[in-house]
Description:
Elements: H1 2-28, H2 33-46, H3 50-56, H4 61-89, H5 91-106, H6 108-113, H7 118-124, H8 127-136, H9 141-164
Helix pairs in contact: 1-2, 1-4, 2-3, 2-4, 3-4, 4-5, 4-8, 4-9, 7-9, 8-9
Amino acid sequence: xxxxxxxxxxxxxxxxxxxxxxxxxxxxxxxxxxxxxxxxxxxxxxxxxxxxxxxxxxxxxxxxxxxxxxxxxxxxxxxxxxxxxxxxxxxxxxxxxxxxxxxxxxxxxxxxxxxxxxxxxxxxxxxxxxxxxxxxxxxxxxxxxxxxxxxxxxxxxxxxxxxxxxxxxxxx
Length: 172
């Protein structure tokens, strides 16, 4: 029963942030469902690369930026929560998580960059690596989430500005 409750909570955050909130906001803004669903789908596949797709499909840029960020948050919390659930309910997974945390603590790379390494990792590789890496390293979920989302927000804002053509005002 504990496993089901923990899995439900992890999936609940995922569904709420990655699906319900973007769709509810689109409904309130009276946006067409087809481009919104295309934005959500592309956000799962190419993360902040979905921003030009959403803007290109005629969605307001502020909505696209906010929706893509919320979707990313849902993906991170969902993956982290599922790994955390597996670690709490399976002795084999708990042992594996403990071993990888001990390995991470002895690693020179993790010692040098630590949790702040999630910032460039998010920009270069994405949430699908950051969430498991943070859980495997034993980092606190809230801090790992904040650093990962900071990296995502920088990439998302830069992508939005580049898509809108405003970046030419900042780069000579």
